[in-house]
Amino acid sequence: MKLSARNQLPGTVEAVSPGATTAHVTIKLNGGGTVVASITNEAVADLALKPGDSVFAVIKASDVMVGKG
């Protein structure tokens, strides 16, 4: 997957907590930190996100997106 965003942080999904419309995806970064992304439940389903998946936290401005490739 190629993106123009330069702030791509590799990590592993630790947890997916769905809500009414959005889910919180907790990502343990390879560098040792943790980031939580708030994305739609539809995006979680489209990416088939689950704990243990290798993902990238993609940060642009104040938003965090998740890419799986």
UniProtKB/TrEMBL annotation:
Pfam families: TOBE
Keywords carried by this UniProt record: Molybdenum
InterPro entries found in the cross-reference section: Mo/tungstate-bd_C_term_dom, Mop_domain, Transp-assoc_OB_typ1
Mop domain boundaries: 2-68
Biological processes per GO annotation: molybdate ion transport
Origin superkingdom: Bacteria
Keyword Amino-acid biosynthesis included in the entry's annotation: no
NCBIfam families: Mop
Protein name as catalogued: Transporter
